[in-house]
Amino acid sequence: MEKQELPYVLINTIGGTYGAYEDHVEFLKKHFNLITMKEFLENKNRFSEKIKAIYMWWSKPAANQELLHSLPNLKVIATSGAGVDHLDLKLISSSFGVKVANTPFAVCNATADLGMALMLASARRLAEGCQIAVSPNTEHFAADWLGDEVTGAILGIIGMGSIGYMVAKRAKAFEMKILYHNRIQRKEEEERAVGAIYCKKIEDLLQQSDFVMQVVKLTPQTDKLFGKKELELMKPTATLIKISRGSVVDQDALVEALQNGVIKATALDVTYPEPLPRKKFWYDSPTVGSHLVYKPSKLATILKATQQKTRKEDSIRKKVLNVLLYKAVTDLMSTCEVSQEVCDLKLELTKVSLSPDFSACRVYWNPAESAEDDRIESILQKSAPRIRHLLITHQVLRTVPPIVFVKDKEAAALKEIDRLLAIADFGLQEEKYTLAENDFSESSSEMAASSIPANLFGIDHEVLNKQIMEYKKMKKVKDTEGIGWAEQQQVQLAEIQKQKQMKKKKIRDPFENDITPQKYLLDKYSEDSLDGDITPSQDSELEYELQEVVDELEVDDDKNQSTTKLK
To answer: Is 69 noted as a catalytic residue in this protein?
Structure first.
């Protein structure tokens, strides 16, 4: 019985920020044939009808209309998360009949834990305390620098689904009074188990709660669910905890509420955009924290100075690590320790760059020297885990992120520019040999022209090369035929110049011997230039010079005759 072929699944890539976890790949390959987006785009005809599913990680690959059209047998899009707001469900389900799968329960406990952590951190002011503790300007903590009590406080949960209910279970351990608002009221036994009280109107919950926690999905109905109106209903001493998607809250209204003291504080799991712009420290609100301990402007200065110093130190550290890894990878690939196949490639590595989050180590190689890029990429991809293992074994670094080989297109482009400039300055190598042998056959010119890409930079190099070769042929033939005539003209010119000098000596006035140094030097320079060797370059130039000398001699003869008559 033949073994059944595994179904084909499209993924974005393996490793990196937006790729499937390397640790998951081995398990996935037991059940699926994984095809990356790069492989798919390079072989659409081969894979388009085979792919039955898309596995999305960090919303990649994007399920747009173009991709869906190119996958006629697609059945399922599976996204690795609870949210589906990044998917156009109407397009996917209605237009293409593709089913969508998510993982709504995979991170319930983790998200509930995070919600409790944010509530505790904001109540006990951990972030502020940490900044003050590490600041070089801190001399002491004020005795009245206090946080808020969580035990016995009122927690209002908006969205009592799976995660919301797990938050309620944890809050019960803190003896908190729990209010909740949901589209559908929970069963009485479920409410009794956690001590939760249902609020049909969200306004009732907001007006009573010390902590308000949002645990809702992002839908068109919940987008900007929390705005200025809802924030103003909260207590001025209340804190907003958000473990929902970023746009569930009107972020501008939230910033304004913090600045104006409408609410005391907020703790956010997700923002929009994410991450927030680094230049805008909107969270350094004048109303956040205690005025008795520090001034917000000083805290902002401390934050900025600390972050700038950290960024600078990280940049220096990263540069040093890049240099160490570059040398280590270069040395490894020049030996057979990785594999004989890699050693035989003799690749030129241009640089190594660690990603900012240390999730990948990019090794850039120069493709200009090679013609078989696909084969080289395959060899490098296969050897990357081995190189990473050797780097860790040799203790170059304690931990080395996954290695990704990348074509250095910039280096390849620079080499190509240098090659083209060399052709422009010195001509093609084939052309040099052709000129040395005086061979101007059509076949040689075609061979020279064929090595230049047609229509490069908008120039038809084939036509241009033919014109150049025809000109050189014509020039060579003309130079060969004119050699005899040029030698004869040179002899005639030398004879005429000699006659001219003799006549000048005969008619020179004796009183002119008393000349100035300037005139003597000028005359001597003229005589030397006439006596020097003359190299004919063009027939027309020789004829012109010969005619000019003859004309001068005729003028001299006329002058001599007129002088004789006067005497």
So the answer is: no
